Amino acid sequence: MKKRTKEILEILDQQYGTEYVCYLNYETPWQLLIATMLSAQCTDARVNIVTKDLFQKYTSVEAFAKADLAELEQDIKPTGFYHNKAKNIIACMRALRDRFGGEVPRSLEDLTSLAGVGRKTANVIRGNIYHDASVVVDTHVKRISNRLGLTKNKEPEKIEQDLMKELPKDHWILYNIQIITFGRSICTARNPKCEECFLTKYCSGSK
Prior knowledge:
Elements: H1 3-16, H2 29-38, H3 44-57, H4 61-65, H5 69-76, H6 82-99, H7 108-112, H8 119-128, H9 139-147, H10 156-166, H11 172-185
Helix pairs in contact: 1-11, 2-6, 2-8, 5-6
């Protein structure tokens, strides 16, 4: 690992600790899968408000698999893009029931074969449920990794590959958790708080 990368990770560890935190509320793997699907183009805080009632109404994979599309659309409407999300959730839960015995699969290949599940969602599941080291590339990770010079790529899959080479495996999941906090509080997309930033010396965007 490069000295520069090591210094960045040490500072992030000091600032945010090394606890694994998931910002989406869930009790079962399939609940996390649905919450992550709902979080596309939506804040985790809003998803948690919606899933609080949603998971009391639909209490199993089977319940979601049998859900009425129009009714589910209304249930998840506040998360945005609800037509697509509702359709994908029903198809995804049916696949879990019919192909995977109601269990959320572990492999990237199986996960990404499900409706509405891309690499990012699959890696959230692998990291949080199965503790398989994986790099989750969301908007914060994409923006900040470029600013910190850890990647020059813009495509999530290429960024994921770059970070897997650049970061030690024990920081793959942790880096995402830390960068989400950093991206929400300091290194925001618009008007980043550079005067409060503890990583300015590593930032290409601040020069």
